[in-house]
Specification:
The complex is a heterodimer. Chain A is mainly β. Chain A is built from no helices and 9 strands. Chain A starts with 8 loop residues before the first strand and ends with a strand. The model of chain A has no long low-confidence stretch (mean pLDDT about 90). The chains are: A mainly beta, B mainly beta. Chains A and B meet through strand 3 and strand 4 of A and strand 4, strand 5, strand 9 and strand 10 of B.
Chain lengths: ~110, ~110
């Protein structure tokens, strides 16, 4: 079973920041938070991951709360091509590297 | 750089027919390999993963089987397809280290009629 909770769907206007929340209240100290997204009829695409510090790359920023029980993925300037299902996943550092996907958040960017 | 291939891209099969989906990875050695399925309107479900040749772990009981005859080849099979086997099948690979991230292939859309 997935260990994360995400809203089923969200809308965001093109050009604005999209903030996608994720609850992972049972996260363990050895688990990372990963974000993937899946554009329709394609395989999931890795976005970003983090342990306890905030992270930023060319695609997005990841803000993890101090208690690590929740996080937010931020797409700073959303475009229509960012419309996708976004998955938040927790996974231990060691052991099998399999990802367990939840239902994700269907993000729709509106023009 | 590493690439992952899946074929066919789409497949329509009658109920009761056999299935063989192939996944190959280039540019890496001894990868971990995964098969996921996504039914229409549903999330991704992990079916099988493999950490080496001939080593297969099954995540859910089902009508499917997996094999890894070579280091970078992962095959998903069925002897007799069911209607419920329809879906989007995704192969993924990752390195074997603890922080290795899975990368997904383009997928195969299977329709069982």
């Amino acid at each position: 079973d997935a260990k994360t909770t995400q809203p089923t769907s969200m809308d965001c206007a093109e050009g604005r920041a999209a903030n996608l929340p994720c609850n992972h209240s049972t996260i363990s100290g050895n688990e990372y938070v990963y974000w993937y997204r899946q554009i329709h009829s394609q395989g999931p695409q890795y976005i970003i991951h983090g342990l306890k510090n905030n992270e930023t790359n060319e695609m997005a920023s990841l803000i993890i709360t101090e208690d690590r029980k929740s996080s937010t993925l931020i797409l700073p300037h959303a475009t229509l091509r960012d419309t996708a299902v976004y998955y938040c996943i927790v996974r231990p550092i060691q052991g099998a590297q399999k990802l367990v996907f939840g239902q994700g958040t269907r993000l729709t960017i509106n023009p | 750089s590493q690439t992952i291939h899946q074929w066919p891209a789409t497949l329509v099969q009658p109920v009761g027919s056999p299935l063989s989906l192939e996944c190959t990875v280039e540019g890496t050695s001894n990868p971990n390999l995964y098969w996921y399925r996504q039914a229409a309107g549903r999330g991704l479900q992990l079916l099988f993963y493999s950490v080496g040749i001939g080593q297969i772990s099954s995540e859910v009981p089902q009508n499917l089987s997996a094999s890894r005859p070579q280091d970078r080849q992962f095959i998903l099979s069925s002897k007799k397809l069911l209607l419920s086997d329809s879906g989007f099948y995704l192969c993924a690979w990752s390195g074997s280290s603890g922080l290795a991230l899975p990368f997904f292939g383009p997928g195969t859309r299977l329709t069982v009629l």
